[in-house]
Amino acid sequence: MRVLGIETSCDETAAAIVERDDQGNGRILSNVVLSQIDDHAPYGGVVPEIAARAHVEVLDRLIGQALHEAQMTLDDVDAVAATAGPGLIGGLIVGLMTGKAIAMAGQKPFYAINHLEGHALTPRLTDRIDFPYLLLLVSGGHTQMVLVKGLGDYERLGTTIDDALGEAFDKTAKLLGLPYPGGPEVEKAALLGDPDRFTLPRPLKGEERLDFSFSGLKTAVRQLATTLEPLSQTDVNDICAAFQTAVADTLDDRVSRSLMRFRQSFPNVEDPALVVAGGVAANNVLRGCLQDLCSANGFRFIAPPMALCTDNAAMIAWAGAERANRTPPDSLDVAPRSRWPL
Ligand code: KG4
Ligand code: ZN
């Protein structure tokens, strides 16, 4: 079964071909991603209208490239999967309509995929892991802890009540005059900074619920930066170090509670695993922190390769491949959804 996947929910245009054999093994035949970061950088964030137009301009060519790299034509594709949400509506329309058109013209089954399900199922493609497992998704648009119990069976344990974690990194960077996207810049500056000079809040730390909150942290950065103005490079480095330490500490608290919750729900799982996904998973300090937490609690820590942690179409194709032959295809009437909780 070879599936063409299409992803256009945010600022990456992506197409991929993934194969799934009868034993459930996956293989990526091609995975093409075109990032629009340069188009959005002058605005310090993703501009929906620019994103949608950029998807329209390049999607056909990217699909052609994905087929070419997989040494296939559309005739060799067994099914089509496209992201139907959640995300920016303009971009979703572009990818979903293109996927439907290809499926209709070729009379192939069509799967409308929830982007979050794509992230959630990726470790089954990369690491062949079995259900159930825990997923921590930390990206520019999402911060969620999800219990992945089975195909189509997901329980959201916690989510952000305000900013996503990547968004908090990006906004903090902007406040400090660092370029977009801010995550890597904050990490670099933090390496040079003193994490003990300032203490920033740890939102929701110690609370029983498993939600996240980051806007208070960002506000604290703003107040601190205003007090110190004009900021020296040392000030910026020290604030970034304090910010990252506060994030790590908060994650530690939220995630360790989630690991406990997993144990309560599945006391008989012998080899429990925590999977991390999303662009923020590129952060070495946070990764190290999650790794330590997993080791201390007897959990396997799985971080798929970075190219599959961030937005891509291989995860969408894979979600389609997992569903193919197990759930009925979706109707071509399916509509894009900017909000679509798992
Ligand atoms: O998953 P992703 O590539 O895209 C979407 O959110 O759609 O995530 C991008 C986010 C951005 O907010 C970016 O600042 C953050 O991931 N990010 C990082 C790092 N690299 C990327 N955050 C913290 N540390 C990093 N090294
Ligand atoms: Zn994503």
From TrEMBL:
CDD domains: ASKHA_NBD_TsaD_bac. It is an enzyme of class 2 (transferase). Its main location: cytoplasm. GO terms for cellular component: cytoplasm. One of its GO terms (biological process) is tRNA threonylcarbamoyladenosine modification. Keywords: Acyltransferase, Cytoplasm, Iron, Metal-binding, Transferase, tRNA processing. Substrate binds at residues 137-141, 170, 183, 187, 283. Its cofactor is Fe(2+). Its EC number is 2.3.1.234. The keyword Cell division does not apply. It comes from the Bacteria. Fe cation binds at residues 115, 119, 311. Residues 28-318 form the Gcp-like domain. It is found in: Cytoplasm. NCBIfam families: gcp_kae1, T6A_TsaD_YgjD. Required for the formation of a threonylcarbamoyl group on adenosine at position 37 (t(6)A37) in tRNAs that read codons beginning with adenine. Is involved in the transfer of the threonylcarbamoyl moiety of threonylcarbamoyl-AMP (TC-AMP) to the N6 group of A37, together with TsaE and TsaB. TsaD likely plays a direct catalytic role in this reaction. This is tRNA N6-adenosine threonylcarbamoyltransferase. The lineage of its organism: Bacteria, Pseudomonadati, Pseudomonadota, Alphaproteobacteria, Hyphomicrobiales.
